[in-house]
Design brief:
With 148 residues, the protein is α+β, with helices and mostly antiparallel strands. It has one domain (20-144): Nucleoside Triphosphate Pyrophosphohydrolase, CATH 3.90.79. The chain is 20% helix and 46% strand.
């Protein structure tokens, strides 16, 4: 963890002498029967969620992302916290600093077919998520959750 900002946990290493794209994102921690919902993609395991579009609230973005990735309708229960993550996207050839907002949420139902076929739901124990989630900010959020 970086200690450049003590108020928001920051993970990864800030690159020097390159452009960093700032990205706002939102993620859900959903637990059913002591398992956490994760999304497997060709790039690794993530919590469900993603980027916040312009003029979108956290809640709107999280609802849209869960609909796109899993076809789910959710209810947001509790704000968990905010964390930042530096990373490099091989696919986009860009350096990012993502500011992620994390929420505990509850599965309400399936409302549609997912529109991102390379995103596959996988349920994990807390211990599996600690090992498998690609980025430290997601692992941090799981540790902060009251579910876990």
């Amino acid at each position: 963890m970086n200690s450049t900002n003590t108020s928001i946990p920051t993970f990864g290493t800030a690159p020097t002498d390159v452009h960093i794209t700032h990205r706002r994102a939102v993620y859900a921690i959903i637990m059913v029967n002591d398992k956490i919902a994760t999304v497997r993609t060709p790039r690794g395991y993530y919590l469900p969620g993603g980027g916040i579009d312009r003029n979108e609230s956290d809640e709107q973005a999280l609802a849209r992302e869960l609909r796109e990735e899993l076809g789910w309708t959710i209810s947001i229960n509790r704000y968990v916290g905010c964390a930042k993550q530096y990373f490099y996207s091989e696919a986009e050839q860009k350096h990012y600093l993502t500011t992620g907002q994390f929420y505990e949420a509850m599965y309400i139902g399936t409302s549609s077919l997912p529109t991102e076929p390379d995103h596959v739901l996988e349920w994990m124990t807390k211990e599996e998520a600690e090992l498998q989630l690609k980025f430290e900010d997601k692992r941090w959020a799981v540790r902060q959750s009251l579910f876990c």
